[in-house]
Amino acid sequence: MDKKKILVVDDERDLCEILQFNLTTAGYETDTAYSTSEAMKKDLTQYDLLLLDVMLPDISGFEMAKLIKADKRTSNIPIIFLTAKDTEEDTLTGFNLGADDYVTKPFSIREVIARVKAVLHRVSTKQTDDAECISYKGLTINLKQKSVTIDGEDVSLTRTEFGLLSMLVSNAGQVFSRQQLLEKVWPQDVIVTDRTVDVNMARMRKKLGRFASCIIARQGFGYCFE
After folding, report:
1. What span, in angstroms and rounded, lies between the C-alpha atoms of 123 and 77?
2. Alpha-carbon distance 193 to 142, whole Å?
3. Cα–Cα dist 161/202, whole Å
4. Is the preceding peptide bond at 187 cis, omega within 30 degrees of 0?
5. CA distances (Å), 89 to each of 16, 95, 97, 185, in order?
6. pTM to 2 decimals?
């Protein structure tokens, strides 16, 4: 498994070195920057997490976080703020900017490493959950739970209907012939005809509400989701 890469941004050089040493020992690849301007010159997309001091000499950590979250390329990078500012207002400001955690100085290195591990695990779990879902606007298909919702409301589909919808939505724009759908959705030991596909498609459409029109029949070719 590739090592997670962390960037520590803090103007206290000794603290950066201590964090870098301990995070590296804990199994993370770690870089440091002593100011916002130095950090922003790096390719931030390569990092899995940022440890970001709030009180930086040029641009504050809060301002840097705003820039990171405003950029689509970096908006999903988790941020843990490191700060001596521990008022409720400061903490809320950090979380409102999209911070994943907030560690107050002075702190123990073990605590920081534990927070880093927890945030990375949480992000990894969320990415896994996201990968198990297919979404299009208000339509969500949960492949793990075998469930479908439209605008948050459950849609009751049969096993076959769920298989058809999942296949079409996960390959949006691709046309599948009736034979392809039969081979991929129906059990191999079940004998069905092309007409069976049409019947199931018609039944499924009735349950999809405003998304029914997204199931397109291509005359002479098959079906697709557009």
Report:
1. 9
2. 28
3. 10
4. no
5. 26, 10, 12, 54
6. 0.56
